[in-house]
Amino acid sequence: MTDFDSLPDPDAAWAAVLQRNRAWDGRFVTGVLTTGIYCRPSCAARHPARCNVRFFVDGAEARLAGLRACLRCRPDDIGRDEAAVAQALDLLVDEDPPRLAALAAAVGYAPDHFGRLFKSAVGLTPAQYMRALRRGRAEEALSSAPRVTDAVYEAGYSAPSRFYAEDGARLGMTPSAWRKGGAGVTIRWAMADTTLGRMLLAATDKGICRLSFDEGEAELRARFPKAQIAPGGTAMASLLAGAVAAVERPAMAAALPLDVQGTVFQEAVWRELQRIPAGETLSYTELATRAGNAGAVRATGSACGANPVAVLIPCHRALRQDGSLGGYAYGLERKKDLLRREKD
Ligand SMILES: [Zn+2]
Questions:
Q1: How far is the CA of 300 from the centre of ligand 1 (A)?
Q2: pLDDT score for 234
Q3: Which residue range forms the structural domain that includes residue 114?
Q4: How far is the CA of 232 from the centre of ligand 1 (A)?
Q5: Confidence band of 156 (pLDDT split at 50, 70, 90)
Q6: Which CATH number belongs to the domain containing residue 197 in this structure?
Q7: From CA 247, how far away is CA 57, in angstroms rounded?
Q8: CA-to-CA distance for 160 and 41, rounded, in angstroms?
Q9: For residue 43, how many C-alpha atoms fall within 13 Å in the half-sphere facing its CB?
Q10: For the chain, does the N or the C end have fewer beta carbons within 10 angstroms?
Q11: Which is more confidently placed, 8 or 196?
Q12: End-to-end Cα spacing for the chain
């Protein structure tokens, strides 16, 4: 969603610079007009005077303004660093995980440098992270491994302890084993006509995992490639009735069981969406704050876009700061329609 491709509030950006807050790296760069250099927010170099600073969305924009990348913090390498940490997290969930030297080599970095990079991104050293995986938390850690990176970089959380602390706090969402494409899970589905169009509903035995429009069995199979996909039959009847009622009267949505899984930050956003009463709306900015990361407005918009169960997690209640509709996965007409129904 490029809608959210915008700069944070300048005061918040400057505060992040003064704190050298790594969580903001990748969200904007700091251009220093006097030196002609741009930096990541966390750059260790001496801080410029505020009056000489201009913020840019990214390095490309700063270069257009005639600035050069700082050689110390290398603001254009953020993507490469993120990719390396993500790749390392994948390697570490192996049964026989590599040690630091091999791990660093596998992702193309020098061991010391990569050790520091990993630690500042994940909050633990690779060895500590592996121990955390082994300790009783193995199951949760495994399922969250890909999510750790997402959360670290999308939400700016700085330590996994934050994620683990939130275990079990999922509102109406049961964590389930279908982390990789739904392996070992049976998903039943059904279609229904609603006043918003043809609706697809799919559910595991724990709850609804998909509510969408303009989709069918093929899209469902693509989404859960390893799950057993079966037509719903009578077992789905009551869920389907509840979902249709929720679409017709969105205030009804709260009672239905959900079985959805996202990154920790996405789930935090979804939880906050569920707390918005029918008939009310919230800006993406406010939603980001409530979800625990005021700076992550763009990630909040993406989390709304990634909502797997339309209406039931009411992402239609999130609007842009100026009150305009922002985005909606199934078209702005449907979003407008849902909001109107809730006001009536
Ligand atoms: Zn720098």
A1: 27
A2: 63
A3: 78-122
A4: 56
A5: very low
A6: 3.30.160.70
A7: 38
A8: 21
A9: 24
A10: C
A11: 196
A12: 29
Rounded distance, CA 65 to CA 241, Å?
Answer: 56
Same-domain status, 244 and 271: no
DSSP state of 97: P
SS3 label, residue 63: helix
Residues 167-184: what's their mean pLDDT?
A: 51
**Residue 26 DSSP SS3:** coil
* Structural domain contains residue 256: no
Query: Is there a contact between 153 and 81 (Cβ–Cβ < 8 Å)?
Result: no
**pLDDT of res. 95:** 66
* Overall average pLDDT of the 29-51 stretch: 93
Model pTM?
0.52
Q: 175 is written with which tokens?
A: 């964590």
Nearest to 69 by CA among 51, 47, 49, 43: 43
278 and 337 within one domain:
yes
Give me ligand 1 centre to Cα 270, in Å: 35
Give the pLDDT of residue 263. 73
Q: Are residues 82 and 69 in the same domain?
A: no
The span from the CA of 111 to the CA of 266, in Å, is 32
Q: Is residue 96 part of a domain?
A: yes
Is residue 51 part of the annotated active site? The answer reads: no
For residue 43, report the distance from its CA to the centre of ligand 1, in Å.
Answer: 4
Catalytic, out of 43, 70, 209, 315: 315
Give the best-scoring range by mean pLDDT among 110-124, 172-186, 210-224, 225-239. Answer: 210-224
pLDDT at 163 over 80: no
Residues 6+ apart with CB under 8 A from 265: 150, 151, 154, 155, 157, 291, 292, 293, 296, 299, 303
- Backbone angles phi and psi of 310, in degrees to 5: -55, 155
| Residues 303-311, mean pLDDT to the nearest whole number | 91
Residues written for the chain = 344
The DSSP bridge partners found for residue 309 are: 211
Name the DSSP class of 76: G
Cβ atoms < 10 Å from Cβ of 117: 20
> The domain spanning residue 24 has which CATH number?
3.40.10.10
